[in-house]
Amino acid sequence: MKSKNYTIMIIPDDEKKSWSFHLRKLSLQAIGFLILFLVSSCLLILSIYIPRINTYEKYEKEYKRLISERLEVAELYAILKRVSQMDEMIRNSLGSTLELEDPLLMEDSISGLYDEPVKQISYLENVPSYPPIQGFISQRLSNKGYFLKDTHHGIDIVSKEGEPILAAASGVIVFSGWTYDYGNMVIIYHGDDYFTHYGHNKKNLKQQLDFVNKGEIIGLVGTTGISSGPHLHFEIWREFQPVDPLEYFPEYATSDITFQND
Question: What is the pLDDT of residues 66-79, one digit of tens each?
């Protein structure tokens, strides 16, 4: 008659006291079935959830791609809104006072005297070429960020508070007032689709619709708006697109203290 009991012995190598366990055949079979059940369950769970994990990863990648596209669209929308506001501001401010299509003629500065100097801008004078202030570049233009807060359409020039800010070119003041981000701000239209922006000013010294000459004082360096210290936020726009001011003022590269400085 076959035995219904099994004995398992554990004998240490150092010949100390050994241990023995007595198991019934039925208990051993139950343990075997339990192990088989656990292995089968694990395999079943893996067969069900591995495809779901792959599907989740696929959806997560698609979600991140959609979020990235939404952020790009939001950034483009913000730029479009800013351009639209600028266009509306120019039309409301200058449309009834200055005829931009005719009076703002692009003439060579050596061609002679103008009949209406307040309404005309010299072609050689309207290109930004006069450094607005002397100082150190603490931040460059960056408009490729994934988040709106990463977008920076100009350069920051650190200088002493109260230093005079000079017009980079001749033009007409189309905005002189307060903005949330840049505090006291001045925007000049120079003709030929050129605009320059001057932000964080301690004080604006020119009013809307004032005509300024290249190198004329338009404000004082300050730290108004969202600012961590006295500096000038300076932007150049051409055809409603921001351009790098360092392309127009390469001399600033010698005072560049950003990590991007090569």
Answer: 887 777 777 766 76
